Amino acid sequence: MDREPAGGAAGKIACILITHLRAKLEIRRNPQLRDQPAVITDRSQGRTLVIDHFPAAQGVTPGMTPEQALSRQAGGKLMEADEPHYRREFHRVLEMLQGVSDRVEGAELGTAYVGLNGLEALYGGEARLVNTLLNAVPQDLAPRAGVGHAKFPAYVAARNAAPMGAARVPSNMAAFLAPHQVELLPLSRRVLDDLHRLGLHTLGDVAVLNIDAMTDRFGTEGRRAWELAQGIDETPLIPIRTEERIVQQTALPMASGSLDLLLAAVDTLLRRAYAQPRMQGRYAGHAALECALYRSPPWERQFHFKQAVGDWGRASRILRGQMESDHPQAPVEEATLALSGITRESGVQMNLLPNQRGDLERRLDQAERQLQARTGGRPVLHRIIPVAHWHPAPELRAMQVPLDPANSGGMRQLSLPHLVTVREGPEGEPLEVFQGGRWRRVARTLDTWCFDLWWMPTPLTRTYYRVEWDMGGDETLFRDGREDQWYQQDP
Fold first, then answer.
1. pLDDT of 391
2. Exposure letters 131-156 (e unless 16+ CB within 10 A, then b)
3. Does 114 share its domain with 170?
4. Which residues of the chain have pLDDT under 50?
5. How far is it, in rounded angstroms, from Cα 130 to Cα 165?
6. Would you tell me how many other CB atoms lie within 10 Å of the CB of residue 296?
7. Residues 411-436: pLDDT tens digits?
């Protein structure tokens, strides 16, 4: 049974391929890894397996166990996959490609398909169009392109291209595909292993077989394998649906496991998101929260609102209700919030009762903007948010955030200590402190206490002294046991 390759129906397609995307993104975050024989592992399927590797890790292939990878690569380093980060960066790549063509499909991580029909004239020919697509992708990802009349042949051509280069599927498609390994076929591991056991190692080996025999032996996967080996791929290109999203991000002043601090950060992000001009008079149906954790994989959750939400306060109550029982179990370093499902319909009747709290906040916002107009746009009014009243370090008990939600300023610590020069006594106690250009003598120590928070991401070891000056008045000083420095603690 012979069939002609499907060509013209789908039109011309470019495959934009980023090989080893995960490794390249890790090198972007930490350039020192470039020459390391590192492998990236994933355990989301219940079993830890290698899914990518760095250039220096020779002889390693995806699907290996960590033990197999390390046995082939002496001195190899294991890294746990950060899939949310990889997906987020690949989504940005897709958005960049959408700036060139409105027909972009994201396949598996690192592989995108772009419809080219009708765009060649706009960009001055196919070569310039493909070059524009390659240049739309960040150059450190070294994309490559393949052009054909179907997805699979274009993908194989992209694998043949050099980094930042392009290859076209030739007219003799069967000869072009024949020498490539069957691993390129989108088949289950079981079928690929069976093909090798039968001596079918290349696409050419599969193409010479009878389609009925392949179907009888492997079912629909066998038929699919035979068609792709012939260059027949009738899979349509399905463009990404562009969804409007409002994204806000903030770094926490310090990595902390405090739920109160995280909730305060979420409130800050919600205030910012709902203050965006695009959200005025509009409602969100979904929220997504992603937290970068200290020495742990990222934590992310999706929140689906039963009825679209048009103000940050109501959204906060929904997120808080869920996060009190489901929150990160490691210190949080950074939080990113995204609102989606944006609509102009709320699905609920507006509250006809006066909202006195809302009126007060609006008056405060108006006063803040008037003050900013006099200070060149600098935030003047701030909100003080208690986050850990029990904490022994005063600067970690409360945070300050700008009152104006449109201000992009982050959370700031209060009561920050500042460095001072101290002359110590025989027991390490403060005797004199250099302040205001002169030495001030300590008359007596009123109180002393210490703590050692060695388990924190940034350990704190301090000895505090409440001292009285010889000229009157008192002050709180502390000696940082890890920095071997003295500080004055602001009240």
1. 82
2. bbbbebbbeebbbbbbbbbbbbbbbb
3. yes
4. 1-9, 349-355, 357
5. 9
6. 15
7. 777 778 999 999 999 999 999 999 88
In whole angstroms, what is the distance from residue 269 CA to residue 410 CA? 9
Count up the domains in the chain and report the number: 3
Pairs from 166-173 (Cβ < 8 Å, separation ≥ 24)? 166/14, 166/127, 166/130, 166/131, 166/134, 169/231, 173/5, 173/230, 173/231
pTM over 0.85: no
Q: Which residues contact 423 (CB under 8 A, 6 or more apart)?
A: 430, 431, 432, 433, 439
Q: Residue 178 has which token pair? A: 């024949």
Has residue 110 been placed in a domain?
yes
Residue holding tokens 């772009």? 114
C-alpha count within 13 angstroms, C-beta hemisphere, residue 41: 18
Which of 319, 324, 234, 306 has the alpha carbon at shortest distance from 271?
319
Tokens of 326: 């489901």
Task: Determine the Cα–Cα distance for residues 24 and 158; give it in Å rounded to an integer.
Answer: 18
SS percent in the chain: helix, strand, coil, step 5 = 30, 30, 40
Residue after which a domain boundary falls, among 178, 207, 241: 241
Pair 11, 66 in one domain: yes
